[in-house]
Amino acid sequence: MTLGRPLLNRRLAAFGTTIFAEMSALAVRTGSINLGQGFPDTDGPEEIREAAVRALRTGHGNQYPPGPGVPELRAAVAAHQERFYGLTWSPDTEVLVTTGATEGIAASLLALLEPGDEVIAFEPYYDSYAACIAMAGAVRVPLTLRAPSFRPDLDELRALVTPRTRLLLLNTPHNPTGTVLTPDELSGIAALAVEHDLLVVTDEVYEHLVFTGAHHPIAALPGMRERTVSVSSAGKTFSYTGWKVGWVTGDAPLVAAVRAAKQYLTFVSGGPFQYAIAEALALPDAFFTAFREGMRRRRDLLAEGLRAAGFRVHEPEGTYFVTTDISPFGEEDAYAFCRALPERCGVAAVPVSVFYDDPEAGRSQVRFTFCKRDDVLEEAVARLGRLAP
Ligand code: PMP
Ligand code: GLN
Fold first, then answer.
1. Mutate which of 18, 19, 20, 231 to test ligand 2's pocket (most atoms within 8 Å of Cβ)?
2. Smallest Cα–Cα separation from 228: which of 87, 102, 115, 355?
C-alpha cells in the first residue's frame, strides 16, 4: 500500500499470478516433469525455423512491420482459412496479425465492450479471458461445462442472455476440457447470437488438434460473418509457442475495431517470425495430418497411463490436454493436489478448479498436457503410477 491505496487496481487485484507460471516455477524448482503449462518440448518444422533465420538475415521484419501485419502473412492467413474452411477474407481489411492469440483476444474485448456489458463464456475458462473481460470493465457470465461430458447446455445458455449481454466468448477446441463443439451446438449458439444480436469472439488456437469430429468455425454459419471475430495463432499448430504470432479474422468493420485497440497495445511484433509463419501456413495438408495423428498417439499414451495410475480420465476430443478427476485417490482439492504432486512423484500438472467461478464444479479436476516427447510421457506415467489410489 502506498499513496493511500493498493497499487494494483481493482479490476486486476483478483487475478494474482497465472497458474501456468506458478506450476511451471514449481516444476523447475523441484526438477519435475512439467505436464502443467501447455508448450511442446520439441520445436516445430526445421524449414520454418530456417525461414525465420532467413528473414532475420535478409532484414525482413527487423524494423517495425506494418500495423496490420506483413502482407505475406495476411495473405497466408486468408489462404489457410479458405483452404480448410472455405471462408474468404480480404487480406487487406479482414485479417489482423496480433502478438499471439492472447493479444487478439485482449484487443477484441477491449475494442468491442463497454463497461458493464455482459460476456458469456464457457467455464472452465482459459485464464486470460476473465482478466481481459475485467480489464474492459465488463462482467463475465459463466456457462458451466460439467463433468463428465463437459458439453454446453444450450437451454442454460439461452437463460443466461439478458438485455446487457453483448458478446459470447467461445473456445473450440476447448482448453482445458478438450470439448469440440459439434455442428448442432454451433448452429444453436449461432441462432441465439443472431436472435439477440450478439457479437461472438471465438478462440480457435487448437483448430488443427481435433481427434474426434472436425473443427467448424462458427464464422461460416448463416448470419455469423458480420458478428464474429475469429482468433487463432501459430503457437500450437506449428509448435513455436514462444514466437507469439497470432491473428484475427472477421468482417472489415470488426477487424477495424480490433485494430483500433491493438495499435495501442503492442502496435506490432515479431517481424521476422511473421514471414516464417506465412510459409508455415502454406505447408501441405500432409503436415497438418501428421501433426494431428502424432498428437493423437500421445493423447492415447497419456490417457492410458493416467487411467492405469488410477485417475478418472476424460478423453479429450481435441487440444493438448487431458482433464482428470482425482476423487479415486480419496482427494478432492485439485489445487492442493497440484501443489503437492511434484514432491510426491516428480510430475507437475494444473488444477482445473482455478478456471471455474463455481468452486464446486471443478474442485477435483486436474489437467495434464501431452504435448511432450514419448519418452517424457512414459517416464511421467511411470512416476504417476506410484501414486497408489
Ligand atoms: N487460447 C487458448 C485456449 C490457449 O490455450 C492459449 C495458450 N496457448 C492461448 C489462447 C494463447 O495463445 P498464444 O500463445 O498464441 O497467445
Ligand atoms: N495455453 C497454454 C496452457 O493452457 C499456456 C498458457 C500460458 O502459459 N499462458 O497451458
1. 20
2. 87
